[in-house]
């Protein structure tokens, strides 16, 4: 979340490097910790619980990677906003980003949630 009147063309890139990338690293380190705990125990129930948590974190990491592609694309564009245009016009500048996915296809994604 950022304030429109404090936005500059580097805000998206800063958000990517200051928030998204550290979050991905935290997820990855948590996965390593859970895998170590799973290897250290002989209890089948605990191993299953650790595996379930790892699966949830892997899903989150995959979501972050896809979102990172969208954020990267927008960050490289260095979009300037004009406060006189209004929120809706400026908001649309961050929507409809083409993201390549497996198989050579591309998917249109939005950086921001629909208003």
Task: Describe what this molecule looks like in 3D.
- Helix 1 runs antiparallel to helix 2.
- The protein is mostly helical.
- The chain has helices at residues 11-40, 44-77, 87-92, and strands spanning 97-100, 106-109.
- The chain has a two-stranded antiparallel ribbon.
- The protein has one domain (4-109).
Number of domains: 1
- Strand adjacency order, main sheet: 1-2
Task: State the share of residues found in helices, binned by percent.
Answer: 55-70%
Uncertain stretches of 5 or more adjacent residues: none
Order of helices and strands: HHHEE
Largest sheet: 2 strands, antiparallel
Total helix count? 3
Portion in strands: 5-15%
Using the CA coordinates, give the radius of gyration.
19 Å
Query: Mean of the pLDDT scores?
Result: 88
Number of strands: 2
How far apart the termini lie comes to 14 Å
The helix-and-strand class reads mainly alpha
Topology:
Elements: H1 11-40, H2 44-77, H3 87-92, E1 97-100, E2 106-109
Antiparallel strand pairs: 1-2
Helix pairs in contact: 1-2
Summarize the structure.
By secondary structure, this protein is mainly α.
Keywords:
115 residues, mainly alpha, 3 helices
């Amino acid at each position: 979340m950022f304030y429109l009147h404090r936005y500059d063309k580097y805000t998206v890139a800063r958000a990517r490097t200051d928030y998204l990338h550290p979050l991905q690293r935290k997820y990855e380190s948590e996965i390593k910790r859970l895998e170590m705990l799973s290897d250290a125990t002989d209890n089948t129930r605990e191993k299953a619980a650790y595996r379930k948590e790892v699966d949830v974190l892997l899903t989150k990491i995959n979501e972050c990677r896809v979102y990172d592609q969208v954020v990267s694309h927008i960050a490289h564009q260095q979009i300037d906003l004009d406060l006189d245009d209004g929120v809706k016009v400026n908001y649309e500048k961050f929507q409809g980003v083409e993201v390549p996915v497996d198989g050579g296809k591309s998917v249109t994604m939005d950086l921001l949630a629909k208003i």
